[in-house]
Design brief:
The structure is a single chain. By secondary structure, the chain is mainly beta. The chain has one domain. It contains 1 helix and 5 strands. The strands form 2 sheets. It has a 3-stranded antiparallel beta sheet, with no helix packed on it. Strands 3-4 form a two-stranded antiparallel ribbon.
């Protein structure tokens, strides 16, 4: 049974159809992999996380559904006097 999902891909500027992890997988429990924290050998402090993908999921399986056009140049311009995240005046 296919476990497909539609996502936006910023690097391709497109809507893509991707594979998802198997929800009933006993290894990853539907998460798609397992994260392993590791520490520095000398100090024992946290140094990062390794991610081990599960075989129930192929991250490279994706298909482009709809390429998205770039915004026109006049919409891409930055307006320093307009802040879209500003609080409303009321």
């Amino acid at each position: 049974m296919a476990r497909l999902r539609i996502q936006f891909s910023a690097c391709r500027r497109a809507l893509i159809l991707t594979d998802t992890p198997r929800p009933d997988c006993s290894d990853c429990e539907g998460e798609g992999g397992t994260a392993h924290d590791y520490g520095d050998y000398e100090t024992g402090e946290y140094a990062g996380t390794d991610y081990e993908p599960c075989p129930c999921w192929d991250q490279t399986r994706c298909w482009t559904l709809l390429p998205l056009p770039r915004r026109p140049r006049w919409l891409r311009r930055q307006h320093p006097d307009i802040d879209p995240w500003a609080e409303p005046p009321f």
